[in-house]
């Protein structure tokens, strides 16, 4: 083994040992605390315990010995702490029940006196023996994964003196089988567990009530076990239809990606499937029919299992008989209208493989697709129609990733420049605060095209609508064809009604992509998309046969391997141990209110206010990421408050006044429930969970500025991301890295729009924003002007005009808020996509598909966008309306469910009690008057707040120098050169001039500012950084500032400003020293190559 590998393995074992040691410590503490409480309770009831003080001291000593390890990370400690509370509560309930029953019985002075507890018919639940409880909890903890069995043995040995019913080995605790039946399978070994044991474990009464036939989906994929090793797992996974939890049927472990002996690998599976199909499945004295629905595999696994050509074969397409063309070292499939394959044709081709090659060989498409006889033919006759085209591998990690790679790292005219890549990355990073919590991976600033499948899916279906809008017009329209087609096929509502349109869009995308990127783009995955519409029409939405759930299970399987010794046996034993411990029961979910707070002190509803509510595996919150949702009538609202009442939770929200189409090509976005929305109304609406149809993804348009030039209280300027700005108590605050950050790390954090961490960021109050920018480069270019003038009103005067280079292509759209019909006519050097808008709209009208037109409502008042809150324009991408429960694996996949349809019976009763008349405005007169008064109050409060913000903004923008008369003959400030400084010293030598200058400088500061900020402000008004670099306080190696007349004028200004309070002159002196110390650094930071700061213009 390589020395570096040994070190890595050693460090990993050390980390695991530390984690296990801490877990044992916490478990020992729980048990000791439980014994102490039990002993105290027994003493109060007059019962004697066997546990003596010596045993208690001994137990504490053992716990201290266990705790000699290092601490694990904070996250593990937090998770463990949550489990401790639950266990302590369970133990307390057990002890209370035991103490109540022990009062009527005699204590025998032993630990087992709980066995003599009398039975009571009044108790709803039987009392659990405490030792059994400890044993159950230990077994569940050991089966959670991430803990080695040797550590479990060590913990059992330490606890056994206290709880003698605990075994000394994990094998007895978990009922680990002694032997695991493993068979040789060519280049590895195979362990087959079976389908029937897993069905007994996962079937529930709720599932059987909804299904007449037990149907499962099958997945086969490979996963590498270790780094720099050829050992792989190839598990056979299954999943009940309409269930989200897959299970293990069998696992192959060997070298190479595929089993060499396919017959042995599938032999047991084929036999069991044939048996279940012919005899049925016995469950609870009833025979259930069994069938396999889908085989969900990636292309490599399908080719291996079906024994057909791979992606490099001329006849590799599994759905049609197209013949490929070898072009630029790629197999390109350019014909998209060939004859489709059928199950009968596949069987005929497979039967020909049994004949000698010379008898059946012909240069035809049929003969050259199947290259062998698959073992699945013994149990499956539908070798074409049952094998699905996996969306995860084919669409997201296949087609869309290839499209993105061509733009990001391609070498054609379509490739993106450095500036375009930076803009796309920054836009994605800016969406992070707006991304709903249902997504597993939030947007971030990307640096390469290496993205996960869930990230690619989110970009394709949601973020790409805004992120790619500034690309070349025809490239963006090509993306819109792909986006619209996949969006339709993922939708449970539209995958059939708009299936024909999706087929047209996919074909147009493939043909247009060939014209854009060349023939080398049309490989197997791109061609196979032609067959996706028919797959979805026959078998359901695209995400119902995706591989995302199975990929999650593969990660869990890999994490359970703790060593390289017999990894297959490790997984087999862990899986067999779960059989006796797992109980798959479905508990009805009720709305869970979280984070109590006072969101609106003027709320008229009586009840506790909350910030968050959990319901049906999703979250609704007052935060902008989870606040947007759609009502049953199509209205889009943002949640502002959640109030608890006797009849259930009440949602308080405001609706958008304007809704319009976001795009027109290839169809109107409103047909897919995608809108551009504006302006929240002032009036609030009161809703129940039944009134909410589905959750929405609210994202800012590309008119949002990502950077701002900010002036801090010390009059320093900096360009920072807008995500570092916030508003508290009506004041604008900015977050900025603390002083211990290095300069290059600060610049990198600004460029990447890093998240503001309260531990490493300082909070600066009363900051002022001069201007917003889309680009960091433009913001930094204007930073120097902000430093000199504290104003950026005329942005065009910052830099001298440059002659712009003419380019052949332009942006696709402008940033105006008008409709798409008013966009500028742009030219593009790339071929245009096909136009079929009119025919398509007529087709939709003939099919009686309701089109939601743009809505416009008058708003009582219009408020501009607020920094750090919601931007003025938003794009709302809703989830699809679905009758199924919300999925936790791919949360925003188009399976965003209808909340009303999935509500429980109790929720329906709550809605009935609350009344349907309470949805928007209640019907009675008193209630109407109440709502009217409430709206008026909210409107008045909002207007007053807006007026206060405007007034404060106006007052900050007024320059004191424009309202005061300057002292006569005062030099221009700030001083830039030594000659100006000397002239100013001569001017201040006169006591009258020095007094007038002190009064003048005092007007730039106020008593509310700290002494340090007052000193910084005056120094910045008087001295330029390049001149201040020549001075320090006492004049060591530089010129002395303490003996100058300007220093005396500065002290006089601070004393004049703080006449009614005592001034700490030592603090002022320290501030002067610090400001002069960092003057050279500030001067070098703002100085451009070849620029002489001494020649820059001065300001009064």
UniProtKB/TrEMBL annotation:
Keyword Cell inner membrane attributed: no
Species for this entry: Frankliniella fusca
The keyword Protease appears for this protein: no
Source organism, top-level taxon: Eukaryota
Biased composition (Acidic residues): 108-124
Protein name: Transient receptor potential cation channel subfamily M member 1
Biased composition (Basic and acidic residues): 1-27
Keyword tags: Receptor
Region (Disordered): 1-130, 785-836, 849-869
């Amino acid at each position: 083994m390589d020395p570096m590998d040994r070190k890595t393995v050693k460090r990993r074992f050390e980390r695991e040992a530390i984690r296990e040691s801490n877990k044992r410590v916490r478990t020992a503490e729980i048990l000791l605390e439980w014994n102490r409480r039990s002993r105290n309770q027994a003493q109060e009831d007059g019962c004697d315990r066997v546990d003596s003080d010596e045993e208690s001291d001994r137990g504490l000593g053992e716990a201290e010995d266990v705790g000699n390890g290092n601490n694990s990370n904070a996250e593990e400690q937090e998770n463990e702490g949550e489990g401790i509370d639950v266990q302590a509560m369970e133990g307390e309930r057990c002890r209370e029940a035991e103490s109540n029953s022990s009062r009527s019985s005699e204590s025998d002075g032993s630990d087992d006196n709980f066995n003599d507890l009398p039975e009571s018919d009044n108790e709803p639940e039987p009392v659990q023996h405490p030792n059994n409880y400890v044993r159950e909890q230990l077994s569940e903890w050991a089966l959670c994964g991430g803990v080695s069995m040797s550590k479990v043995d060590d913990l059992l040995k330490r606890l056994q003196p206290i709880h003698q019913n605990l075994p000394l080995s994990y094998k007895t605790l978990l009922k680990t089988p002694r032997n695991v039946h493993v068979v040789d399978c060519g280049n590895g070994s195979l362990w087959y567990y079976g389908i029937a044991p897993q069905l007994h474990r996962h079937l529930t009464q709720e599932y059987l009530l909804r299904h007449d036939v037990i149907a499962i989906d099958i997945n086969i994929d490979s996963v590498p076990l270790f780094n720099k090793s050829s050992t792989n797992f190839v598990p056979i996974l299954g999943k009940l239809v309409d269930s989200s939890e897959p299970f293990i049927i069998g696992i192959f472990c060997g070298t190479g990606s595929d089993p060499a002996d396919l017959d042995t690998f599938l032999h047991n599976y084929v036999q069991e499937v044939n048996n279940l199909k012919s005899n049925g499945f016995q469950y609870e004295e009833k025979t259930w029919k069994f069938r396999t629905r889908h085989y969900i595999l990636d292309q490599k696994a399908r080719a291996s299992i079906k024994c057909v050509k791979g992606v490099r074969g001329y006849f590799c397409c599994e759905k049609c008989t197209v013949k490929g063309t070898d072009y630029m070292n790629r197999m390109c499939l350019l014909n998209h209208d060939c004859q489709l394959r059928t199950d009968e044709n596949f069987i005929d081709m497979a039967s020909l493989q049994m004949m000698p090659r010379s008898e059946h060989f012909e240069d035809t498409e049929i003969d050259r697709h199947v290259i062998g006889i698959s073992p699945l033919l013994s149990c499956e006759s539908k070798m074409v129609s049952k094998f699905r085209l996996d969306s995860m591998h084919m669409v997201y990690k296949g087609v869309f990733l290839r499209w993105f790679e061509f733009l990001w790292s391609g070498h054609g005219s379509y490739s993106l420049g450095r500036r375009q890549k930076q803009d796309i990355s920054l836009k994605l990073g800016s969406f992070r605060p707006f991304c709903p919590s249902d997504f597993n991976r939030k947007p971030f600033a990307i640096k390469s095209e290496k993205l996960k499948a869930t990230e690619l899916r989110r970009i394709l279906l949601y973020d790409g609508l805004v992120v790619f809008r500034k690309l070349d017009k025809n490239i963006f329209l090509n993306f819109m064809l792909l986006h619209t087609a996949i969006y339709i096929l993922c939708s449970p509502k539209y995958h059939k009604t708009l299936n024909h349109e999706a087929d047209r869009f996919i074909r147009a995308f493939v043909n247009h992509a060939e014209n854009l990127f060349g023939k080398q783009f049309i490989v197997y995955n791109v061609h196979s998309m032609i067959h996706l519409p028919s797959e979805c029409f026959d078998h359901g939405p695209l995400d119902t046969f995706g591989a995302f759930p199975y990929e999650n299970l593969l990660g869990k399987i890999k994490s359970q391997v703790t060593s390289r010794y017999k990894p297959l046996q490790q997984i087999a034993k862990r899986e067999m141990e779960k059989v006796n411990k797992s109980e798959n029961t479905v508990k009805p979910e009720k709305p869970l209110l979280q984070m109590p707070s006072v969101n609106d002190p003027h709320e008229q509803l009586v009840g506790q206010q909350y910030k968050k509510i959990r319901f049906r595996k999703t979250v609704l919150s007052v935060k902008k990421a989870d606040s947007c949702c759609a009502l049953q009538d199509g209205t889009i609202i943002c949640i502002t408050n959640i109030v608890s009442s006797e009849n259930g939770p009440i949602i308080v929200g405001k609706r958008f006044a304007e809704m319009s189409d976001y795009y027109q090509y290839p169809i109107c976005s409103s047909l897919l429930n995608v809108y551009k929305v504006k302006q929240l109304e002032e009036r609030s609406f009161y809703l129940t969970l039944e009134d909410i149809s589905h959750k929405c993804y609210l994202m800012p348009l590309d008119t949002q500025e990502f950077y701002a030039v900010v002036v801090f209280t010390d009059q320093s300027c900096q360009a920072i991301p807008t995500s570092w700005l916030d508003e508290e108590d009506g004041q604008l605050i900015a977050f900025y890295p603390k002083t211990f950050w290095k300069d290059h790390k600060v610049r990198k954090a600004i460029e990447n729009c890093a998240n503001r961490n309260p531990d490493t960021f300082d909070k600066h109050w009363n900051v002022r924003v001069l201007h917003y920018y889309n680009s960091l480069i433009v913001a930094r270019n204007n930073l120097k002007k902000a430093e000199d003038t504290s104003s950026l009103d005329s942005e065009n005067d910052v830099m001298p005009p440059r002659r712009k280079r003419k380019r052949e292509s332009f942006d696709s759209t402008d940033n105006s808020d008008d409709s798409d019909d008013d966009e500028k006519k742009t030219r593009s050097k790339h071929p245009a996509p096909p136009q079929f808008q009119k025919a398509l709209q007529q087709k939709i009208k003939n099919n009686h598909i309701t089109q939601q037109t743009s809505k416009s409502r008058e708003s009582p008042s219009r408020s501009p966008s607020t920094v750090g809150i919601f931007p003025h324009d938003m794009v709302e991408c809703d989830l699809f309306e679905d009758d199924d429960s919300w999925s936790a694996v791919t949360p925003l996949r188009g399976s965003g469910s209808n909340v009303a349809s999935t509500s429980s019976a109790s929720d329906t009763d709550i809605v009935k009690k609350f009344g349907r008349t309470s949805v928007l405005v209640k019907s009675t007169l008193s209630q109407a008057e109440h709502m009217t008064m409430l709206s008026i109050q909210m409107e008045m409060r909002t207007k007053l707040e807006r007026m206060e913000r405007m007034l404060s903004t106006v007052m900050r923008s007024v320059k004191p120098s424009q309202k005061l008369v300057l002292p006569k003959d005062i030099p221009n400030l700030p001083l830039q050169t030594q000659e100006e400084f000397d002239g100013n010293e001569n001017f201040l030598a006169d006591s009258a001039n020095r007094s007038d200058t002190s009064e003048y400088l005092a007007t730039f500061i106020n008593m509310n500012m700290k002494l340090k900020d007052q000193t910084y402000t005056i120094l910045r008004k008087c001295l330029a950084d390049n001149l201040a670099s020549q001075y320090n306080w006492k004049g060591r190696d530089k010129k002395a500032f303490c003996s100058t007349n300007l220093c005396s004028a500065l002290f006089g200004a601070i004393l004049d400003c703080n006449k009614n309070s005592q001034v700490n002159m030592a603090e002022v002196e320290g501030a002067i020293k610090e400001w002069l110390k960092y003057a050279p650094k500030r001067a070098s930071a703002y100085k451009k190559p070849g620029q002489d700061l001494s020649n820059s213009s001065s300001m009064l």
